[in-house]
Write a structure and sequence with these properties.
heterodimer, A: 276 residues, alpha+beta, Alpha-Beta Plaits, 2 domains, two-stranded antiparallel ribbon, 9 helices, B: 661 residues, mainly alpha, Formate dehydrogenase/DMSO reductase fold, 4 domains, 4 strands, 55% helix
């Protein structure tokens, strides 16, 4: 089976918070045992041993659960900032990480708008750790991601992004009073492959404010980066030009000086510039 | 402060840092830093790379003034500036190597090209500029060793090199700002702006002028030489203009983007902002626009020091410190992080001193100034310390070797355990627990439970009972200690195949800051949030630990609902005739009914009674789903995984194995 632009849709109204997805992820991917490391600042946060986790909020209707995981952005910030190309957005949808290339600069960790990539700080040779939508399982074995498979209530489903998007819209239209009329991940930061529909407002950034900006993350840096060759040429040209003008003027001044007083002609030559 | 003291401190810091770098190679960056997943860039990146590149801007700035603009006034500073720049960039390279997770992969960007990555561009510009600086500095070396041919080639290529250096610097100084355009949701709006590249470039030139002035003044003072004040005051004036431009751009941008109110908030970020901009720009500008201060060695020294610290703070802020608010994280560098950053800087400083003494960096600082320092003078042969560490060359070598080794050793001694044994999880401690010795009297006959007696009770048979260690734990963090038989819990809860399996039930591994599961999380029948019986209130009213026996009259029985005094024994008027809460199950007469019992007994009965009288028939009215909404269905498997917040508790009728549903 060939996959293309695969995605995950999570329906917050269906999630019962059983954490089967978390356990399935940890077992399938062989993640290390969760331990109380120094850098774990709150319980059940994403970590190198937990690639997906549940966050919940309580309101008058009760408790709502949503699953945090890598959003597999369509135009990912992490991929654009990676210095060696260890992170790649694949055709199949997942954002894949290549540990053989990673140098550990951790720029992806601060460039991710969702605060997803984690680091195995406990290791002598640490790597970035994040969900890759079970890339090998999905692409090579033709299965679906472990978390989706484990979900007992079909709160999280797997499929092509377009199909999931229309399914999400269908659900929104079918029960307009139940859902907030919005698909999280449809447009934020240029769209993500992991989307949510919900009956409560979601903020899955790990920060205080949800993201509303629809511009893809790479645009913020590449718009300036692409100017750099011109800046280089411009700066070099300007410096060369300014220097030529200044030297020319010095030369003219020296010649004028020479004409007015021929006896001091040699003195200007003796003024040797000291090197750096 | 004498040169010897400064060098001693530098050698000591270099020793401290070297040990930590070696330790970091052993167990990775996690073992010696306080970095976290949420704040993965700290002092090594913010201070050792981003700030140091800005300070190293002195190299290209002064070279631009001298070789492009032909401002001969700054000629005396240019060699110092080039070497200073070179040392800054070498320090950056070393610091970055050990900051990244896999240090031997620092060379990967050489052949894994990523043209969409700003960091890739910065890395290449810095590498190329490092080469340019090396070639520029080789001019000085060639001159020192009178290599005429090399010198001729270098002289001819000077202009090209300088132009390349300026262009490369323009790129990477500004691109260091571009790096942080990728973090718009983390960085505080006072620092995050699309103009970061411009701000970084302008401020790098401004601060470059001041740092090279600072270094020149410092070095000349140490060697008792007369600094080139004409050049320094000129640079100070230029830097005042550049810093003023920086402040104007920055403040205008903040006001124009409608974030002006953030400037007058009463919080840490605003305070940080004003401290930073005052130190880095406002104070220097205020002083440097006056000629009297510009021409005073002392004034320029202190102003330049202030500005350098302030601008370093700016870079550290952008790289991490100003993200702590929005990310709700906390970070202060570990001493090991300081040791590495300062150690690398100190090593760079020592190389600078070496160059000052051997390569004639400054025209006003001649061989005489250097040699003068090494005058042995009159040595007292009876004073071994003076003889060994005295004024001669070897005396200094002895001293510096000693402090370097002391630095190494001290650092080794102070290294955190993580750096020596590998990173280990935080230890979980039982809060305030203490062990007491008790006599354990096993359950007799049909009596439930085991009895513990602490101390000499004097009763018969006690001395025959086994002495065991039990814990006094404040299991619910409410100030009341109870006797806790740890061994018994471990044995009872453990599975047959894995005796250690029970540990995690209470010492919950995913609860790093909640060291152990609290008692009530298992013994939920006393603290159930929806229970009609409020155990806490009763304990409080009855005087904490003093009142336990009021209800738990039998000390040998487990302190659970079934073995305790009935509610009606104290609250005599509790069960009224005709009340709808009629507990029909005789086994439940013993204790106060829980919330679920009340609801199931009361609501269900009433609904069933009322259903026939409903004006609009509703078949769900008396069904479970009427209350238990939000469940997909009441299929039994879903029901179990639903984990209703109304938890069940064990009752006597359950002990036979029946579920309470």
């Amino acid at each position: 089976m060939t996959w293309k632009n695969m995605a995950i849709l999570t329906d917050v109204t269906k999630c019962i918070g059983c954490e089967e997805c978390v356990m399935a992820c940890q077992e399938t991917r062989g993640l290390p045992k969760e331990q109380p490391w120094r850098w774990i600042t709150h319980i059940d946060d994403l970590s190198s041993a937990r690639w997906t986790t549940l966050v919940s909020t309580v309101d008058e209707q009760g408790q709502h659960f949503a699953r945090r995981q890598c959003r597999h952005c369509l135009d990912p910030g992490c991929v654009s900032v990676c210095i060696v190309g260890a992170l790649q957005k694949t055709e199949e949808g997942p954002v894949k990480y290549d540990p053989d290339l990673c140098i550990g600069c951790r720029y992806c960790m601060i460039a991710c708008p969702w605060q997803i990539p984690r680091y195995s700080w406990e290791d002598t040779v640490p790597y970035v750790q994040k969900c890759d939508m079970c890339y090998d399982r999905v692409v090579n074995e033709g299965e679906i991601p472990a978390c989706v498979e484990a979900c007992p209530t079909e709160a999280t489903i797997f499929g092509e992004r377009e199909a999931l998007l229309s399914e999400a819209k269908r659900r929104l239209a079918a029960e307009p009073d139940k859902y907030i009329q919005k698909v999280w991940g449809e447009e934020e930061v240029g769209g993500t492959s992991v989307m949510y529909i919900s009956d409560v407002e979601l903020n899955l950034t790990g920060l205080g404010e949800p993201i509303r900006d629809t511009a893809p993350m790479p645009h913020r840096t590449t718009k300036i980066l692409h100017q750099m060759p011109f800046v280089f040429v411009l700066m070099a040209g300007a410096m060369g030009g300014v220097n030529w003008v200044i030297r020319r003027r010095q030369q003219i001044a020296a010649e004028a000086h020479q004409l007015s007083d021929e006896s001091s002609a040699q003195s200007s030559d003796s003024q040797e510039v000291r090197g750096p | 402060m004498t040169l010897r003291v400064v060098k001693t401190i530098f050698w000591f810091l270099a020793g401290l840092g070297l040990t930590v770098i070696l330790a970091r190679i052993l167990y990775g960056p996690g073992s010696v830093t306080y970095l976290t997943d949420i704040l993965p860039w700290g002092l090594w990146k913010g201070g050792g790379v981003v700030a140091l590149v800005a300070l190293g801007g002195a190299g290209f700035t002064v070279a631009m003034f001298v070789f492009i603009f032909q401002w001969d006034r700054y000629q005396p500073l240019v060699r110092g500036a080039v070497l200073f720049g070179l040392l800054c960039y070498v320090s950056v390279a070393v610091g970055l190597t050990f900051d990244i997770g896999i240090w031997w992969r620092i060379v990967f960007p050489l052949w894994h090209w990523q043209f969409h990555s700003v960091l890739f561009e910065v890395a290449w510009c810095i590498m190329l500029y490092l080469v340019v600086l090396l070639v520029e500095f080789s001019h000085t070396v060639a001159e020192r060793y009178e290599m005429e041919r090399t010198l001729r080639i270098l002289k001819r290529s000077t202009l090209v090199l300088v132009i390349a250096g300026i262009s490369l610097s323009t790129l990477h100084q500004s691109s260091l700002g571009t790096l942080f355009l990728a973090t718009p949701f983390r960085l505080h709006p006072l620092w995050h702006t699309d103009l970061l590249p411009v701000l970084f470039f302008v401020s790098a030139m401004g601060i470059g002028c001041l740092t090279i002035s600072l270094v020149t003044l410092f070095v000349h003072r140490l060697y008792n030489a007369e600094p080139p004040m004409n050049a320094i005051s000129g640079l100070a004036r230029i830097s005042a203009y550049l810093l003023a431009a920086y402040v104007v751009i920055r403040l205008t941008e903040i006001l124009a983007s409608g974030e002006g109110l953030l400037l007058v908030q009463n919080d840490w970020d605003t305070l940080n902002f004003w401290i930073e901009i005052s130190l880095s720009a406002l104070i220097p500008i205020a002083f440097l626009f006056r000629k009297a201060y510009r021409c005073s060695k002392t004034a320029v020294f202190w102003i330049a020091l202030t500005a350098t610290i302030g601008m370093a703070l700016n870079r550290v802020n952008v790289a991490g410190l100003a993200t702590t608010n929005l990310t709700q994280s906390f970070y202060f560098p570990a001493w090991t992080e300081w040791a590495v950053t300062l150690g690398i800087l100190a090593a760079g400083g020592l190389v600078f001193f070496f160059a000052v003494e051997h390569f004639g960096l400054f025209q006003g600082l001649t061989k005489e100034h250097v040699v003068e320092r090494y005058e042995p003078g009159q040595l007292d042969h009876t004073d071994w310390a003076a003889l060994y560490f005295g004024g001669q060359r070897f005396g200094e070598v002895h001293l510096y070797s000693l402090v370097f080794v002391v630095g190494l050793a001290l650092s080794l001694g102070l290294l955190p355990d993580d750096a020596i044994y590998g990173v280990s999880p935080e230890t979980t401690v039982t809060f305030g627990a203490r062990t007491v010795v008790a006599h354990k009297i096993p359950a007799r006959g049909d009596e439930a439970g085991t009895q513990f007696l602490v101390g000499n009770g004097g009763e018969d048979g006690i001395h025959a009972a086994a002495e065991v260690h039990v814990l006094m734990v404040d299991g619910n963090r409410d100030g009341d200690y109870v006797l806790f038989d740890h061994d018994n819990h471990a044995a009872t809860l453990a599975g047959e195949d894995d005796p250690d399996a029970s540990c995690v039930l209470c010492h919950h591994m995913s609860k790093p800051f909640d060291e152990a599961t609290q008692c009530y999380e298992c013994h939920s029948d006393m603290y159930l949030t929806v229970d009609l019986f409020d155990h806490d209130l009763h304990a409080r009213e009855l005087g904490g630990n003093q009142g336990c026996a009021e209800c738990h009259q039998d000390p040998s029985a487990p302190k659970i609902r079934e073995n305790s005094t009935e509610c009606v024994d104290c609250h005599e008027g509790m069960r009224q005739e005709g009340s709808r809460v009629q507990v029909t199950d005789p086994t439940m007469q013993y204790f106060a009914p829980g919330y679920m019992h009340v609801m199931h007994a009361l609501c269900e009965t009433c609904h069933e009674e009322r259903q026939p009288t409903l004006p609009v028939p509703n078949e769900n009215f008396a069904r479970c789903t009427n209350c238990h909404q939000g469940l997909p269905s009441l299929r039994s498997d879903i029901w179990k995984s639903a984990r209703m917040s109304i938890a069940t508790y064990t009752t006597r009728s359950d002990s036979g194995g029946g579920g309470q549903q």
